[in-house]
Amino acid sequence: xxxxxxxxxxxAKDVTVxxxxxxxxxxxxxxxxxxxxxxxxxxxxxxxxCLIKVTVLGDNPPLATHLTDKEKxxxxxxxxxxxxxxxxxxxxxxxxQYRLAxxxxxxxxxxxxxxxxxxxxE
Length: 122
Ligand code: FES
What we know:
Elements: E1 2-7, E2 15-19, H1 27-33, E3 51-56, H2 69-77, H3 83-92, E4 98-100, E5 111-114
Parallel strand pairs: 1-5
Antiparallel strand pairs: 1-2, 3-4, 3-5
The site of FE2/S2 (inorganic) cluster has 13 residues, from loops.
């Protein structure tokens, strides 16, 4: 069980929802289920509109560091993923700050998800 807290200026207040352990849904699917208004256009890792900032909470090492190839490309093209940050993510399990909600698989860890409400804007 993981707590996922969504925070955005377009929401009246932060919303914390529970993600079920073993569920392999994307963060975007979880957000939609709870009517969290993360912008999304392609829902396939190509447009960058679902840009989010993820902060892992608690003292445990981060789990959700895997980035899909589409996510790597889209974040890189949009200037949100440098080569150095990607190298660190892949070699040291240090998760990048910016992710795509439609590519991020929710794991059993508590996270804070921040988004602006504007497509592709942090
Ligand atoms: Fe297009 Fe996520 S909705 S990249």
